[in-house]
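== Item description ==
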Amino acid sequence: MRMLGFLLQKEFIQIFRDKTILLILFLITSILLFILPPAAKVRTSTISLSVVDHDRTSTSANFLRKLTSSNQFRIGAYADTYEEGLKVLEKNKTSGILEIPKGFEKNVMERTKAPIMLEIDAVNGVTAGLSSFYFLQILERYIWEYVDGFGFQPGFRMESQEEIMARVEAEAQAEMTKRAKAEVASQARLAQAQQMMLARAEAETRLQEGVEMPRANQSPEARVTAKMNEWEKGEEITVPGLMIDAGGADVNIPLIEKPTESGFEQINMVVNHRYNPDGESSLYQIPSLLAILVCIIGAVLSALNIVTEKENGTIEQMNVSPVKRSAFIFSKIIPSWVIGMAILTLGLIIVWALYGIVPQSSYWSIYLVSFLFLVSMVGFGVLISTACRNQQQAMLLCFFFLLIICLLCGMWTPIDSMPGWARVIADINPLRYYIEVMRLFFAYGSELRHVLPQIGALCVFIVVFNGWAIWNFRKAR
């Protein structure tokens, strides 16, 4: 342990004497935490449009005023035809064309289709997608203003949602009343037919009383009922205006019945963004940038450390000295761990001070997972250093692998949308699992038990990278 202490002291003195390493640390931290977050926001500036207004009415003018008041769009040029607007777009003076057809106001007033054409330059797909999204939101708000009764000429007003519901309810109630009246009339005709049958039975009974003697103990009502039963068995009675279909089903008429509860209210849909109510992209990107910072620091420092010993010739002195190999390897790894954790702490402070973002989980969980990730990346850097002879080779090899690691980590492109071969590379990418953990800690407030699969993957990378680095270092000696 005493020998390890002296080696660590030598390593820290050597690191802080090297101005190049300190400059690299400063530049990487500044670029990733001060420059990239404001520049990488998924927002667009004001979009300039070429407006082709064939209608030229107050309704189209109100819509354009609503569009430009949102600070998302501005009118860059007015054109009389679509071809003129396209020429302006081709000169890169505007980013899109908005064409309002003739009869727009008339179609709106008559509540018919009122199409509007918006064409956006889709060379930048992100800008085009966001522009169309903003346009649809503004158009929706404009339509709801008309639904609420604003913007129409005097004497005309569109129905609100409450009025539409009331009208449909009234129509349904009228249909119910109509069906009830028809049923009452049907029952009345049926009762009338029964009375006619009863009167006929009584009349025939009186006629037979003069010929036949009445049966003993049988009342007149019983004789009438028996006569009606005989008719039902051997004779079909047809009542004019009455048609009964016992096998057919009633016509299904949709009815709207207002609930009896006094607290009934109309259902409104409200969209709530969980974990990120304001929809800020910084909450999604800044933890990823912090993870990339830790990755670069751990890999680059450890890769340059042993290579520097080779360039200075001190590696041969270390080989013939009584220093154990384990102490020598740990003396190269531990400083990278310490500096990586210090950079992580500095990054957490900068993120809190500049952007107001704090992790929802405990800091101990972040430091534990970050320590495991640093161990794996330091082992990866030592592995690179064992295969290189000078700092230039180490830097180029680090740049090659770190470029692949950072591009296929899931920050810039969702892993699910990658092709199959890219997903395979992402599965063996330690940064991918570390970014997942950082996002879970910052946005969701997850605990360690929620990230056990990611922790297991990092432990596998620790064993593979460090074991491979030690084996390759012994082979090189």
User: Anything to note?
Assistant: Confidence is low (pLDDT under 50) at residues 150-158, 234-267. The longest helix spans residues 161-209. The chain has 16 helices and four strands.
